[in-house]
Amino acid sequence: MSEVHEDKERYLVYRIKDELYASPLLDFKEVIEFIKPKIVPNMPNYFSGMVNLRGLIMGVIDLRKKLGYQENYELKPSMLICETDVGPLAAIIDKVEFVVYFSPTEIQDLKVEGKVDISCLQGFMQYQEHLISVIDIKKFVSNIEKSEKVEQEKAA
Amino acid sequence: MKNISLGKKINGLCIMVLLLTGIVTFVQFKKTNDSLIEKVHDKFQTDAEMLGANITTVLFERYYDVQAFASNKALTQFKEKEQMTMGLNSLVNLYGVYDLLMVVDAKGNYISSSSVDSFGIDIDTNKIQGNYADTNWFKKTMSGEFTVGKLYSGTFVESPQFDPITSKAEDRPMYGTSFSAPLKNDQGEIIGVVTARANFKWIAKLFASFFNAVKAQGYNTELSLVDGSGKLLFEYDPVLHKSDKFKYDEQVLGKLNLSESNAVSKMMKGVKGAEYVVHTRKNVEQLVGFSPFDKEHFFESFNWGILVRIPKNAALGNIVDNERNFLLGLLVVLVVGLIISFFVSWIIGKSFIAESKKLSESAVASHQLSKVLFESSDSVASATVEQSAGIQESVSALSEMGSMISQTASSAKTSMDSAQKMNNKAKEGEHIMEEMMYSFRSIQEANQQLQKISSIIQEVSKKTNIINDIVFKTQLLSFNASIEAARAGQHGKGFAVVAEEVGNLAKVSGSAAKDIELMLQDSQKQVQDILSGLQEKIEKSSSVSNQAVSNFKDISNEIDVIVSQIRGITDACAQQELGVQQTSTAMSQIDVATQKNSSTAQETLGAAKKLADENTKLKDISASIFGLINGESFKSKTVESQPQKPSSGAGDSAILSLDDSVQNLMKKRGSRDPKQQGKAS
User: Fold this and answer.
1) Contact A60, A112 (CB under 8 A)
2) For B450-456, what is the mean pLDDT?
């Protein structure tokens, strides 16, 4: 796949369970193997804990749990390191599939109005036979941060 | 006799014995009684005799008194009358028995007399003076017709009478006896007669004393003196006269004739004895002892006799009482004896009847038993015959058996050979199976090597994992490289391509690794399948072969057992052969014994027949005993009335039927005998 994609963005496609998700490649700082996180007490169930990546301490969010899936113990999961406003964060996914060139215009927006907050779901892209959900991972993670903060403040 | 039952016979016998005893006792008693009566008779007869003798003595005294008076010379001096009277008076006083002594001359003229009587009373002699030539006593004395006895003579005696002379002198009846003797002078011429008129009291005294003597013995008698013509001369009967005094009744003495009395008539014939005579005046039966005076010592012309009379009851009172008591006692004894005899005979008869019934019952039972014995001995005899035949058959069967056994023995030997061969084959099979087992083991070893291959494949599979890991990491690296290239912007475009290519390579190698892994897994699986199937089959065939080996071993063992059993059969056959031979000899011995048994059974049969005969006899005997006890008529009655009942003692019908059956059996036996003989031989 050595073709030149001038007007196209690069997206990292990853798998959770049988579903494929895609996020802009540049949202990720690094892709690493799964490191077992240190469990932090009194956290939501999708917050797996903290990891030390080459001296940098960061929180770990289990995206699978966050997206309503069960933890898959058969697969060897990977971690996606994202640079957020509040710092780096590790997100656990089942598997990194491939990198895809895709024009953002080709992303079909989701035209659904509802009470559920789907602002971080940017849309869907049709790649070959797969229908891939495009997630704004930064936003998604930031939302989490925010909601957590709000919850924490509320709790306080 | 046969119609009388035993009880009646016993009763009759008892009655007869009792009667005989009674009669004998009675006769004996009667004899004794008679002898007692005889003694009483004798006593009274002797009394009469004794009284007669006493009277005779006294009479003779008087007889010679008068002769003595006559020999007195003073009485010849007829002229001296007063002196004579005085002398006579002194004689009267001296003797005390004479009422009057008187002397008359040869012409019968009164010369002189005593003037005093025997009682000492004076008498008027004037009344009696006169001539006595016509009197009997004078005439007889003068003519010498004396009253004589064998030893004496010289005096004429008048029998007792109411003396007319003394009665005249005393003016009252005087009873007496006169004795007259001739008065002789010195020349021996008869010049007169002396007559002595004796009062009867001197004889009457004898009667009285005698009466008292007899009364002292317990008898109130009546004594009488009777003359030859049966006239009563004197009687002394204080019972009748109610007085001890002598009574001289003119109406009776010398007038009452007792000659009609049996006793008197006998006595008049000179017989003494005792008789029972009815006293006409008293109308009482009396025992009369009578005796005439002794002719030797008494006057020949006098035919006096003495009667000693006593009422029969008085004489024989004790004896009659005794007799009555005895008869009463005898009757009581007879009656009691009869009752006892009836009772005893009843008891004996009862028990006899019971026993005879039992006897007859047991006779019938034994009869039936003998019948049964007869039948059973008959059946034993026939059974022995059959046994003999059976034994013969057994002997032949035994010989057949012997040959069969030898055949069996040879068959057993053949079987043993076959079994041996089979055993060898089984052992070969076992060896083959063992070899197969070895082959299996080598296959198993190969299998283990195959398993090693499998493990190698697993190792390879692990290595592919490492490749996978590398691929994964390479991929991650390629992603990171892509990210870095993207950050580099325009400068990183070439690097991005490299990174992409690396990623693609990684992907290809990853898929290749995956394929390898899949192939490996597949081969691994196949190997595993082969291994497991092979293992299973090996195990199965191993177990099968093991089983086959063990089966072969079992077969071999079984064959061994069979061989040993066949050996046992062979041995047993040999022993059986021996046993059959022994049995055969034993059978022949049994045959001999059976023949012996047969003859014994015959003997038993004969004995049973004899027993049956004896039983019949026994039956007859029991029946006749029954008849004897109950009487022939009773038996025949019972037989007629109860012919079916054997217990009634009439087992004759049963005996007859038994005899018939025995006869039939004997006939049957007789017809079967020759057959049996043939069989036995």
Assistant:
1) no
2) 86
